[in-house]
Amino acid sequence: MPLTAHEWNFDGLVGPTHNYSGLSFGNIASATNQGAVANPRLAALQGLAKMKALSDRGWKQGVLAPQERPNIAALRRLGFTGDDTTVLKAAARDARPVFNSVMSASSMWAANAATVSPSANTADGRVHFTAANLNHKFHRSMEHPTTTRILHAMFPDTARFAHHQALPSCPQFGDEGAANHTRFTPAIGKRGVEFFVFGAVGFDPSAPTPKRYPARQTLEASQAVARLHGLDPRVTVFAQQHPDVIDAGVFHNDVIAVGHRELLFCHEAAFAHQAAVLSELQQKFGDGFSVITVSANDVSVDEAVKSYLFNSQLLSKPDGKMAIVVPEECRINAHVWPYLQSLVTSHPTLNEALVFDLRESMMNGGGPACLRLRVELNATEANAVNPNVVMNDVLFARLTAWVQKHYRDRMADADLAEPTLINEVRAALDELTVILKLGSVYPFQL
Ligand code: SUG
Q: Is 229 a catalytic residue?
């Protein structure tokens, strides 16, 4: 069985309202690009191009559907009344940041959709999913109910897949999903180590925390997810992200570290007590664990945040080597690109860099790794996945045509308030649920 297991990447399809609203304090790209004009069509096509290219190379690739925005129900819950148009108009006029929040296409960053543990690591031998509450930011906190419905529609077989509802939405249980979770294993499909990284201790305000920017993930949230998934403490590691790097703009662990199989690729400043963290990982993993630590001399934390070097994907090749998927921002960076070139020519396992233009997502702080949710599946589990979300030539052609038909190529702040947008989005999403055979997952369909 392990021989036929694969790590799948399910990428978030960018939604039709993609825009730059500066909603994520602590995420420097989001703040810097507030008010810039977005191009939702280009954003979706850039994401699809990455999915298609990786699928063409033989990597298992699927699609995670976007969410319904505007989220009218959220506005009604906040006291706006009348028909949909009246609700939207009043919110746009009287509560602009709230309005922008209910328009956000942030579900594209699928790494934040959920935490996933493969069956090789869970007590009941099922693949476990816990939707992330994303409770630190209003615009993201409203994702999890629809995320849960979509994950059910993608992984419907409850004999093989366990779906947990998001953790309680409060600061002590702030959970940002797989962006702060990594699995190490000697081979895909085999039991391995699950590694959870947190930024704050929810019930202990005296624990070290960043001073400038918020820590979004708590230890208690990570521990709850580990319990829900039935993980064995002997192969589970919890580590604190260094508060200083959060203050430098590293709002999730996946902006400073990435792991795959037996390899951890991280910056030397990634974790508090880094030596102890690496030694616990090493000891729990056993022989064969390997770390590439990037020094500040080679790449500073600021350059890492700008280029998103660590927001990369490490992918296994058929010969056992690995490729690293990085954004174009790495290629144009005078420090990062030479470093990466020398890494892939000298490292025994990591021997290829693949570059993608994901600029539209990057401008909101979302790189290649943010856009994907990893799910390790053995052959039986893979057969139980809704086949209509699996990337192939036909799906790529259908989704490309769907984007071309429904998406605007310009989304400025003022465009978000256009009354026609809501019906454009609903028509697009209705068609999408037919393409992906998801059933009724959106509030307007329920
Ligand atoms: O949560 N940006 C997202 C980016 C998430 C990146 N994900 C990972 N690193 N895994 C966030 O901060 C910006 C939206 C805006 O400003 O319009 C935003 O939500």
A: no
pLDDT digits 0-9 by tens, 375-413? 999 999 999 999 999 999 999 999 999 999 999 999 999
How many angstroms is it from 36 CA to the middle of ligand 1? Answer: 15
Query: pTM score, two decimals?
Result: 0.98
Task: Say yes or no to pLDDT of 415 above 50.
Answer: yes
- Reply yes or no on whether 252 is catalytic: yes
Rounded to the nearest angstrom, the distance between the alpha carbon of 289 and the centre of ligand 1 is 31
3-state secondary structure the chain: CHHHCEEEEEEECCCCCCCCCCCCCCCHHHHHCCCCCECHHHHHHHHHHHHHHHHHCCCCEEEECCCCCCCHHHHHHCCCCCCHHHHHHHHHHHCHHHHHHHHCCHHHCHHHCEEEECHHHCCCCCEEEEECCCCCCHHHHCCHHHHHHHHHHHCCCCCCEEEECCCCCCHHHCCCHHHHEEEECCCCCCCCEEEEEECECCCCCCCCCCCCCCCCCEHHHHHHHHHHCCCCHHHEEEEEECHHHHHCCCCCHHHCEEEECCEEEEECCCECCHHHHHHHHHHHHCCCCEEEEECCCCCCHHHHHHHCCCCCEEEECCCCCEEEEEEHHHHCCCCHHHHHHHHHHHCCCEEEEEEECCHHHHCCCCCCCCCEEEEEECHHHHHCCCHHHECCHHHHHHHHHHHHHHCCCCECHHHHHCCCHHHHHHHHHHHHHHHCCCCCCCHHHC
